[in-house]
Here is the input.
Amino acid sequence: MISKILIANRGEIALRIVRACKELGIKTMAVYSEADEQSLHVQLADEAICIGPAQSHLSYLKADRLIAAAEIGDVDAIHPGYGFLAENPDFAEQCEVANIKFIGPKSQTIREMGDKAVARKIVKEAGVPTVPGSEGPIKDDKEALKVAKEIGFPVIIKAVAGGGGKGMRVAHNAPAFQKEFVMAQAEAEKAFGDGSVYVEKYLEAPRHIEFQILADEHGNVIHLGERDCSVQRRHQKLIEEAPSPFLTDELRQEMGQAAVRAAEACGYQNAGTIEFLVDGEGNYYFIEMNTRIQVEHGVTEEVTGYDLVIRQIKIAAGVRLELKQEDIRFFRHAIECRINAENPSRNFAPCPGEISLYYAPGGHGVRVDSHVYGGYTIPPYYDSMISKVITYGRTRRLALDRMNRALSEYLIRGIETTTPFTRAIINDPVFRNGEATTRYIEEFMNRTPKSFYLSNEP
Here is the structure.
């Protein structure tokens, strides 16, 4: 059994893991950079150790320091959270070599599913639809242009090792293709140290829908339904909800079965997510697998009633998944809004600084996952997300109304946040009608006066 876990992350996910471990009676060891000494996860963990300077490449991304901290702390397992080294196969392999349980899939699975070309091949052989595209990475722009013409424009060029919207460029015609291809390669090399890219058909206005997977070490795989993540800005998710207002029961069942087949095909273990694009006619296509817990996992927890982080830890401990697919019920609707320390009036520029006043919303049907508090200083070195507001109710309408109420109560002073912008979306008729696609934010900003989403009174 696991008796002590090192949390190889920071912010709200690190705090989320601390809380899950406390419920399980498992001791925790936090790691932190010099900029995070006052973070809540550091204060609430049983032990904490500094692993380096503020910059992430000198601290949270230093695998050797994390392994050394784990050995000093004599831990049984490491939970990587999301981001940083969570999907780094080399780090997972280092944990395996050091006989420290990595709370996630095997390193080989991360390596295979992290390579988008390999992942496409694996799921395609399992009968899961994929977006038409190149069979593997393409280095030569002339060969890539030939593939693009065969597929038909517009096409999207994607980094093989990509994530978070980096290394992705859209080409609408042949004259623009070469420039976008070279830029995608350069972005991929800079972001991931790997300039490999592939080409696939670009769907103009699809839905982005992902299915939550749980798989144990004994071959049992189930899904816990979908999350609709279509509301995105620059390929970064802003609002997620479950269930999707677009899927029919039949399509939900079909896509869920496809997600399970994809997970089985790669021998998956632990929590993961199968991501799809769905067009207006209900045709769905696999795009990637996230081999970790997702930022938006709380939406699924509130819809199904199951704690996913606790499930992760139990699976890593070798516990057989007692849930069957027929046990999973979706008994309410949940919506999550990510609140970022960004200034919408300055093109969403990051806004680090000290929070002078902090009051989180509450009441029935409201959950706030956050690591910040009054007096806390948001450092400029990391992702700008500072909290996630989740509301839920028996119906989507009720969850939306509760979100509007919750966001109106949220008081954060001293810095700018995206709260007014997010609240404006919640009150937008297009979103409330469940009609948002991945083009939604662009269209919303084009048709909405800026003053509307810079004010707390939409």
Q: What stands out?
A: The CA atoms of residues 3 and 26 lie 5 Å apart. The chain has 16 helices and 22 strands. The radius of gyration is 21 Å.
